[in-house]
Design brief:
There is one protein chain. Helix 1 runs antiparallel to helix 2. This protein has four helices and no strands. It is flat, with a radius of gyration of 19 Å. The protein has one domain. It is mostly helical.
C-alpha cells in the first residue's frame, strides 16, 4: 500500500471520527469534539513541523561547519527549527495557548514561576 493511500485513509478516518463525535451529542461532549478537531489539525501540522525541524537541523549543521565549528552561529538556527510545538492540542484550539511553530532559545525563556496568566484566564 502506498504512503499516499495510507495518508488518505488516515485523514478520512479522522474526519469520519470527528463527524461522528460532532453528530451524536448524547455521547460526545464539546471537549471530545475539540479533541477530535485537534487531532485532525495535527494530521496536517505535525508533518510540516517535522520537515521544518529536519531541514533546520541540516542547515544548522552546515552553518556550524562553515563557520569553523562556531556554536554561537548554529545554536539559534537549531533551536528555532527544533523547539516549539509538534502537535495541536485542545488548548491551542480554545485560545488558551498559542501555537509555537518556530521555537525559542531556552536561555531567553522566563522561569515557570514568573508566568502570569492573561486577564480573564484564571
Amino acid at each position: 500500500m502506498s504512503h499516499r493511500r495510507t495518508t488518505r485513509r488516515g485523514v478520512a478516518l479522522a474526519l469520519v471520527l470527528a463527524a461522528t463525535l460532532w453528530a451524536s451529542p448524547a455521547h460526545a461532549t464539546n471537549d471530545a469534539a475539540i479533541g477530535a478537531g485537534a487531532a485532525v489539525c495535527s494530521l496536517l501540522y505535525s508533518p510540516a513541523k517535522l520537515v521544518f525541524a529536519g531541514l533546520g537541523t541540516v542547515v544548522s549543521g552546515m552553518a556550524w561547519l562553515m563557520t569553523g565549528f562556531d556554536s554561537e552561529v548554529a545554536r539559534p538556527i537549531f533551536y528555532s527549527a527544533v523547539r516549539g510545538d509538534y502537535v495541536i492540542t485542545p488548548a491551542h484550539l480554545e485560545g488558551r495557548r498559542g501555537v509555537e511553530f518556530v521555537g525559542r532559545d531556552p536561555r531567553d525563556e522566563l522561569p515557570e514561576e514568573s508566568f502570569e496568566p492573561a486577564p480573564g484566564n484564571w
